[in-house]
Every structure is written in C-alpha cells, then in structure tokens.
C-alpha cells in the first residue's frame, strides 16, 4: 500500500478546487522551472534548478533524462538519491487529484537507482537502493532494494538475490575478470 494522506473534498472534483490546496503562484513558478529543466541538456543545471527553486532533495551525480517530469504542485515531496538515472519522459508524482478526494505522498528514490524511460511513479512510493525499474512501468507500490521490476501492473522480475546470482560471472557486476 502506498503511503499517502487523503483529503476529502465536497462539491466539484478535487482538481477543480486545486488552488485551495496549493498556491496559483507556486504552481506558476514550478511550471516555469520544470519546463526549463525538462529541456536543458546540462545535468548539473537541472539538479540546481530542482534543488534551488523546487526544494527537491537530489543526490550528487543524479541524472534526469530529457523531458523527465516532476510533480508540478508538490515537488518538495520528492527525494532522489545519488548517482541515479531517471529515464527520458518519466513522471514522478507526489499528488493525485480524484473526484471526491486528493492524496499527497512523499516519493523516496534510493541511491544508484535506474528508472527506465516513460515510467510513472505514483505518490507515496519508496524505491530502494540499487533497484532497476524497466521502461514503461507504472510504479504503484514500494520497490525492494536491489530488485528489478517492470510492467503494468508492476511486478518483481528479479529479486536482489536472483540478480546477484545472474551477475556473479559478469565482468562488470560480478567476480569475473574483464577481457579486453
């Protein structure tokens, strides 16, 4: 189960009432900053924009691919560890606006996590250190550290232990010797 806080609304759907939950000016500022970051090819500049203007926690050497989209309303609820790759056109959400309620939840992505292209991460999810999320995945629940997950609905493809076994003779990951 995702860790989100639910807020009930009355009358029109929650998205229609969004400016009761978040300032119009905050959304406007975030929109401008996010659009600049989505298109800049300079990774250190993206991270600086996210940290400085959106109050996101972004680890050193983390890379956000072109067109990656972070939550426009609550980006400060997103934390990404060091040396991660967030793939092309992926989306990280910290909110959900529904008909009769809206939900907010922190997103925590550990260190050295690989997020494939076109992945959507829902609010209230934690992705453990060293996890790999395949392209096009809908991350709707926590991802164990070191595991490889994918699909819609997301499923564990390999656990950390299974991956370690597969990689033991790999020259990059395992104890095998590199050949030139």
TrEMBL record:
**Could you confirm whether the keyword 4Fe-4S appears in this record?**
no
**GO molecular function terms attached to this record:** acyltransferase activity
Keywords from the UniProt entry: Acyltransferase, Transferase
The source's superkingdom equals: Bacteria
Residue ranges crossing the lipid bilayer per the database entry: none
Q: Which InterPro entries match?
A: Hexapep, Trans_hexapeptide_repeat, Trimer_LpxA-like_sf
UniProt xrefs under CDD domains: LbH_MAT_like (cd04647)
Q: Name one Pfam family in it.
A: Hexapep_2
Extract the coiled-coil ranges from the record: none
Protein name per UniProt: Acyltransferase
**Which source organism?**
Fervidibacillus halotolerans
């Amino acid at each position: 189960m995702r860790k989100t806080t639910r807020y009930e609304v009355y009358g029109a759907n929650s998205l229609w009432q969004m400016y009761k939950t978040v300032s119009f000016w905050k959304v406007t500022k975030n929109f401008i900053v996010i659009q600049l970051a989505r298109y800049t090819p300079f990774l250190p500049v993206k991270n600086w924009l996210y940290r400085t203007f959106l109050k996101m926690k972004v680890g050193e050497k983390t890379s956000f691919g072109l067109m990656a989209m972070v939550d426009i309303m609550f980006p400060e609820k997103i934390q990404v560890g060091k040396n991660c790759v967030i793939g092309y056109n992926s989306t990280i959400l910290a909110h959900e606006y529904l008909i009769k309620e809206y939900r907010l939840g922190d997103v925590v992505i550990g260190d050295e996590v690989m997020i494939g292209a076109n992945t959507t991460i829902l609010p209230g999810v934690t992705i453990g250190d060293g996890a790999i999320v395949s392209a096009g995945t809908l991350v709707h629940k926590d991802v164990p550290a070191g595991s490889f997950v994918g699909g819609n609905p997301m499923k564990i493809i390999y656990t950390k232990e299974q991956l370690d076994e597969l990689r033991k003779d790999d020259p990059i990951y395992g104890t095998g010797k590199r050949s030139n």
